[in-house]
Amino acid sequence: MNGSDTPEHCLDCGAEIPAGAKECPTCAARGVGSPSRQTAVLLSLLLLSALFVVTGFATRAFHYHEEQVAEEWLRRGEAELAAGHTNEAIDALRNSLVYSKDNRQAQLRLAQTLAAAGRNDEARIYLRTLWESEPGNAAVNLELARLAVRDGDVSEALRYYHGSIYGVWDSHVLERRRETRLELIQYLSSRGLRQQALAETLALAASLPPDPKLETMAGNLFFQQGVYNRALVQFKEALRLDPHDEKALAGAGRASFELGNFADAQRYLRQAVRAAPHDQEAANLLALSASVLELDPYAAGLSADARAQRVRRAFALAQQRLTACTPPATDARAPQLAVLAARLAAMKPQATQNALRRDMDLFDSTAALAFEVESAAAPVCGPGSVDDQALALIARVRAATASGIIPGGGL
Predict the structure, then answer these.
(1) For residue 183, how far is the Cα from the chain centroid?
(2) Do residues 375 and 392 touch, judged by C-beta distance below 8 A?
(3) Counting beta carbons within 10 angstroms of the beta carbon of residue 78, is it exposed (0 to 12), middle (13 to 18) or buried (19 or more)?
(4) Taking the mean position of all CA atoms in its chain, how far away is CA 301?
(5) HEC assignment per residue over 317-350
(6) Half-sphere exposure of 30 (CA within 13 A, CB side)
(7) What residue ranges do the domains of the chain occupy?
(8) Which of 78, 108, 111 is nearest to 92 (CA)?
(9) For residue 352, which of 311, 306, 323 has the smallest C-alpha distance?
């Protein structure tokens, strides 16, 4: 007993081991710890391990096969969609989901295809499911916004468009957000929601990188919304980045023209026409701006003689306009033009150069009559010559100024 009176005990069963014995008689009687039993246990463990490995491999192989089949159906669906075969694409995408029901890409693509086919209710089911599991997904929000647009639900469209703008995109984040906001602006504008469209345009302009093309795009949006002063700001920024950008030059000229800044309009438009001679609208506005600057009797810095000469020219143009404008007697506007012709005839002897130079009341009344004639003749006999259009424009600008209206102010 290892040199002591204390008996040894079996480590397995705890029984006493007699002195001189090499193993526990109790365990030996039970067969515990025998080489044959240990071998059997070891073999069993090895067999189980092998079965686990084989099962895992088979499972992984099966899932890999399913994924491959799902990917193949997805590619086929994309190909059918590219070929314009919508129904075949839907079938292929559904097959893809049979093999990979949690494939979010296939679910989104199927929803988009269903929506494109006008099957909005089916598309909405998939999109709602996707949105509930991932409400910040920008692509899903965009598709839901487009469905809301089709349904005519403005509040839902706004909700999902904003969810898309501020959501998570997989790639090209800034570009996708900008494109989505542009889509929202176009939608709001089409609904006549001017203030909301303007708010979104302001947000768009504030987030632009230093790119003259993007600044010009924002300027055009403001211009379309009638906010000409803000449009001019964007066009000027585009020109700061690229002084030779022909579209920005034309935009700045048009915005200045609408704001009544005809000298600036002429400067910008002259450069725009040089850069793009094919731009007929810019050329027409340039000619009109030049005519306004030449004809306006109230332009700053004119001498008394120069003002009188301009009023006499405006008066002569008004006479020619009425002479050439002869509406049918049945036209309800004909009597008004006849009255204006009589007033011109009565004022002509008084409207001399000297009298107009000395008498400001006569100067104002002569100019006002010429403006009135041009404004009244335009809806009856068309716009007339460039000079006629210029006088009618001067009349509108002066009327707006007198009433305190700032053209295209907006912001």
Answers:
(1) 4
(2) yes
(3) middle
(4) 45
(5) HHHHHHHHCCCCCCCCCHHHHHHHHHHHHHHCCC
(6) 9
(7) 208-295, 304-402
(8) 78
(9) 311
- CA–CA separation, 393 and 318 (whole Å): 14
User: 208-295 architecture in CATH?
Assistant: Alpha Horseshoe (1.25)
Q: Which helix (H) or strand (E) holds 8?
A: strand 8-9
Q: Is the pTM of this model over 0.90?
A: no
3-state secondary structure at position 123: helix
CB 34: neighbour CB atoms within 10 A?
13
- Residue 4 is given by DSSP the state S
> In the structure encoding, which two tokens stand for residue 101, read together?
């029901």
- Give the span between the Cα atoms of 241 and 357, in whole angstroms: 47
Tokens (6 digits) for 288: 């009109």
**Amino acid letter, 400:** A
Give Cβ neighbours of residue 113 (< 8 Å, ≥ 6 apart). 77, 81, 86, 89, 90, 93
| DSSP bridge partners of 9 | 16
Q: How far apart, in whole angstroms, are the C-alpha atoms of residue 205 and residue 231?
A: 10
State the pLDDT at residue 407.
Answer: 66
Rounded CA-CA distance 262/258 in Å is 9
The pLDDT tens digits for 15-52 are: 677 777 666 776 666 654 455 666 766 777 777 766 66
Tokens read off for 264: 């600036």
